[in-house]
Design goal:
By secondary structure, this protein is mainly beta. The chain is 5% helix and 29% strand. The strands form three sheets. A four-stranded antiparallel beta sheet has the order 4-3-2-11, with no helix packed on it. It has a four-stranded antiparallel beta sheet with strand order 5-6-7-8, with no helix packed on it. A hairpin with a 2-residue loop joins β2 and β3. The longest helix is centred in the C-terminal third of the chain and has 7 residues.
């Protein structure tokens, strides 16, 4: 079902100019009232944008780092790892690391990260927000 009052183009907001992003670093911004981390592993052509909280311990990911070998974003607090799609690839505190691959385990004990839909155009990284028309706060860089 399509809502006629919904304007797709009015829900995209600038996160940052691409030239201001450091590809091998975790960049931090406030985007539409949410703290987000923007990062890109060495093998990727696109940036990933996550809500900043690690779902395992609720600590911020802005102090995390990008693993040189896997390209995963690593939480600095407990070492949980997330791929560019926000899927947890490793939890060092799981009883048995094989359980991470089990969907039943993940649904019960561990959520994946909230990933924002993004697009790069005209030298800008923009993010999509279905609630964007209600928000008036500007994006600001924190680091």
């Amino acid at each position: 079902m399509t809502n006629a009052s919904f304007s797709y183009h009015q829900h995209w907001f600038t996160i940052s100019p691409i030239k201001d992003l450091e590809p091998n670093k975790v960049n931090t911004f406030v985007f539409l009232r949410d703290l987000v981390v923007v990062w890109k592993p060495y093998f990727s052509t696109q940036y990933s944008v996550f809500i900043h909280e690690c779902p395992h311990c609720r600590k911020t990911l802005k102090t995390g780092h990008i693993d040189d070998q896997t390209g995963d974003l690593v939480c600095s607090y407990r070492g949980c790892r997330f791929d560019t799609q926000g899927i947890c690839t490793h939890n060092p505190y799981a009883e048995d690391p094989k359980f991470i691959a089990d969907n039943r385990y993940k649904k019960k004990l561990f959520r994946d990260i909230t990933v924002l839909q993004t697009h790069e155009e005209n030298g800008l990284l923009v993010g999509f927000s279905p609630l964007g028309l209600l928000v008036t706060q500007h994006v600001e860089r924190l680091d």
